[in-house]
Amino acid sequence: MAMIQAARPKRKRTFMEWARSRDGQKVFVMLAFMIVPLLLLFVFTYLPFAEMFGFSFYNMKYVGARKFVGLKNYMKVFQRDDCFGALKLSLYYMVGSVVQLVLALYLATVLSFKVKGGGIFKGFMFFPYLINGIAIGFIFKFFYTRGFVLDTVLQWCGFNLENLPYWLKDQSINNISLVGTSVWRYFGQNMVLFIGAIMSVDSELYEAAMLDGANKLQQFKYIILPSIKTIITLNVIMSITGSLSAFEPPYVITSGANGTGTYFVVMHEIAHTQQKVGLASAMAVVLLMIIFVVTILQKLFFKYVFKSAEDEDKNAAAKREKKLARLAARKAGK
Prior knowledge:
Helices cover about 75% and strands about 0% of the residues. By secondary structure, it is mostly helical. Helix 4 packs across helix 16, helix 7 packs across helix 10 and helix 13 packs antiparallel against helix 16.
């Protein structure tokens, strides 16, 4: 009797039975975690971008009739001085991002090892990144205003107020002042990322390097840099793309006046004040393409740089092994 029952084929579960089972619940949970984020990404990112891309081919306002103009909006981006000229200001922010990364990497290297008060210093340096960008803009607006904080401190140091420049009006220095604001805000974030990467390096590598007689600079060049190359690439890409889309400091501090209007500030002016939605959409698409190209070039550059460094390390290791083999052969011959 038992053998007959065992020989009977198992009854297939219905869909409702499978859905109520543990296996069915797992599948539904996985689908939910996969479909919901993709749906939100499509609705709030890809669909609006597709609409904006369509707007870039029209001469239109937010309300009213549309007129198809083809690629004329894209041509205007490079013909108008306020559009194309604003891209030149990104060079200031790019140079500032390099200074920001160098400073962050230097401080991260120092603070990754035992330093008195290192934890407090890390907190102070990272704190500006937590402050809202609009609030930082208002802080530095008063900081740079004539006769206020910066001028007062410089007068304490012996400078005459009449000899000091107008930090936000003088076009030879106002963009540098705004770049300093961005460096102050973001270098703490880069520093924390560098610290996390440096602290993950195996400590035995430092001990082996010290036994070989390597100094601190050589340890930094041959141990730290190759070990954190991924974070370096990430920080550089984030900093360069951020410099192309700088908005908060020039918008809040100067409202884009006196030659401080970045690409985003000009795009905001064209879209919301002049109501040229088609042109502003074309500017956004052009900026996206520039960021995409710059990101690809950066990846290729770092791939070449780190590949060359790895080849040098392999050659040095091969030479070291040959020397050790020769020494071992001489000892064996004796």
